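User: Show me a protein chain along with its predicted structure.
Assistant: Here is one chain, sequence first, then structure tokens.
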Amino acid sequence: MGVRALREAADPAVHPELGEPWQVEKLYYDRIQNFDRFHTVYQAIAAEHGADERIERMLEMFRERPLPGDHAGALRRLLEQRDAALRSHASQV
């Protein structure tokens, strides 16, 4: 829903009565619900309440959904650099 709203906000043909279109440069939250995360949450719920066929279909949809970017790799490198700097200046921490 959020991605659709983001796209439609930039489209002047969609809801022109709401004013000028505008475009957001970046959207990060939509990648939070990736397959691994959704699967882990579903397993916990299914263990307590039983399986749900509708949710299992959604889970398959998430499994096939490609993730266009991986910010974790860039962040991991920055954190490693930060940790190395902190270790080399341990007396200042």
